[in-house]
Design goal:
By secondary structure, this protein is an alpha+beta fold. It has one domain (about 5-180): Cyclic phosphodiesterase (Cyclic Phosphodiesterase, Chain: A, Alpha-Beta Complex), CATH 3.90.1140. Helix content is about 30%, strand content about 40%. It has helices at about 15-30, 55-65, 100-115, 140-150, and strands at about 5-10, 35-40, 45-55, 75-85, 90-95, 130-135, 155-160, 160-170, 175-185. β4 (about 75-85) and β5 form a beta hairpin.
Length: about 180
């Protein structure tokens, strides 16, 4: 039986200015005393589609399809803090996408179309996950924090690559590695 690889397709967020701004926000977020786990700075990314557990042959096919992706590089701006499912009952804390949102949505739609034989997801909502809420402790402070930061600006990121990534779950958190990198023109 073929090895199954937990995987997703994403755009990494590595711009130093943005990573530094996110880390500062995460420190402030932790100071609320809420029960949460921040995303490690080296794991920051915008997921275009989660593929789940896939045999290697499927990932080889997805990589081949990604090669034909016709998109050009573009810039997105990260601004505004929010939560899923909503700010009064947060489970995931995220940063929104302002400028470049339409291009990112189009990129995600095209990536999802080429992967539709292997995985299907609900509608794409552009966001950068920065923390996961683990319990109800200090939820009122967390809600106030979200309100106070809903218009913050975190900087710009050039979307120059789309990556097919492996996700290995460990007790200390996920470890991501690149399986295939498609450079945009």
């Amino acid at each position: 039986m073929s090895e199954r690889i937990r995987s997703f397709i994403a755009v990494d967020v590595t711009a130093k200015e943005v990573v530094n701004a996110v880390e500062a926000l995460q420190r402030e977020l932790l100071a609320t005393g809420a029960d949460l786990k921040p995303v490690e700075p080296y794991n920051l990314h915008l997921t275009l589609i989660f593929l789940g557990e896939q045999p290697k042959r499927n990932l080889d096919e997805i990589a081949k399809r990604l090669e034909g992706l016709p998109h050009k590089r573009f810039v997105i701006e990260l601004r505004g803090v929010g939560a899923f499912p909503n700010p009064s009952s947060p489970r995931v804390i995220w940063i929104d996408v302002g400028k470049g949102r339409e291009e990112l949505v189009k990129l995600a739609q095209d990536v999802r179309a080429l992967a539709r034989d292997f995985a299907q997801e609900d509608e794409f909502t552009p966001h950068l996950t920065i923390a996961r809420v683990k319990g109800p402790r200090n939820r009122d402070k967390l809600t106030a924090f979200l309100e106070a930061h809903r218009s913050d600006r975190f900087g710009e990121v050039e979307v120059a690559e789309v990556k097919l990534k492996r996700s290995t779950l460990t007790p200390r958190g996920p470890i991501y590695s690149d399986i295939y990198v498609k450079k945009l023109a």
